[in-house]
Amino acid sequence: MRVGILTGGGDCPGLNAVIRAAVRKGERHYGDELVGFLDAWDGVRERRTMPLSVETMRGLLPRGGTVLGTRRGSPFDTDDGVALVKRSLHDLGLDGLMVIGGNGTLSVACRLSNEYGLPIVGVPKTIDNDIVGTDVTFGFNTAVQIATDAIDRLHTTAESHDRVMVVEVMGRHTGWIATSAGIAGGATAVLIPEIPFDIDELCARLTRRHDRGRYASIVVVAEGSEPVPGTLEMEDKVFDRFGHVVLGGVATRIAMAIGDRTGFETRVVQLGHVQRGGTPTAYDRILSTRFGVAAIDMIHDRQWGKMAVLRGDKIVTEDLEVAVGKTRTVDMELYEGVAEYFFA
């Protein structure tokens, strides 16, 4: 078969490992010819490609990012976008297309498959771990490890200066990274988008800790966290050209409020895109490899409109439409069960 591959949305540790695995099994087991589209759907519409082979993918297992490049956007953004995608797949003689991406990218893939009959399979990808249908997404483990390493380092400097450190991590709609890194890093408090926070309650918690002689604290904040309405004034929201709220800065507002209300010396650390970059962990390399192998098998089984997902310790298939328009939020049993005993 002749198979196309694209990566869409934000970059993520493990993308190259998925591509590499699909290419290795596709070429060596099935005798496939594989083609990579550059810059997500833009590359499909504009027929910008690169050949993918075992040779070209050598050394990419531990490399972060994606050799194919990635962008946000959709063929549905323009009137002729879908027609251009269909024409490209036809003219390039592709028998199937592997789409590796997050909620937005997989939603586009689902629509193209279900409504237009295009031969597409998906691979779920996001460091936020918020895709419905799979227990874990690759890239999440790496992001949590990076955030945990940072928190470990911040403990010592916070203790040296009796400071409150407010650490902002990624998490637009969900707090999986914040919760996991907060647990692993021994945070004092973790604020997540699923639960609006009360700044007075947070300050009271920090004050009680201070009164017990613990002068250093770590507060982990997911970038999409919001206060209980009326409890903390926030800046007006700004939107990007795709209609997404531009995040980043909630930790600064929280730190200012903590300093003003408690008098404690407070500092902000925004980890930002460092969580996306660099070498994937061993766990993510293995999971990515398993996803890539499963996805190329799915193409040969012509399981169009489906994606490879992790259930327990098994890779299985699931309909793409399961993930469309949904967000996998933090398990409250995990968050609340730990918060009661450790976030204090």
Folded structure, characterized:
This protein has 344 residues and is an alpha/beta fold. The protein has two domains: 2-139 and 280-322, 3-Layer(aba) Sandwich (Rossmann fold); 141-277, 3-Layer(aba) Sandwich (Rossmann fold). 39% of the residues lie in helices and 17% in strands. The chain has ten helices and eleven strands. It has helices spanning 15-28, 40-46, 81-91, 103-116, 140-161, 176-185, 199-211, 250-262, 282-300, 332-342; strands at 2-7, 33-37, 49-52, 96-101, 120-124, 164-169, 189-191, 217-222, 266-270, 306-311, 314-319. The strands form two sheets. A seven-stranded mixed beta sheet has the order 3-2-1-4-5-10-11, sandwiched between helices. It has a four-stranded parallel beta sheet with strand order 7-8-6-9, with helices on both faces. Strand 4 (96-101), helix 4 (103-116) and strand 5 form a beta-alpha-beta unit. Helix 5 (140-161) crosses helix 6. The longest helix has 22 residues, at 140-161. The chain is elongated and about 70 Å long. The model has no long low-confidence stretch (mean pLDDT 93).
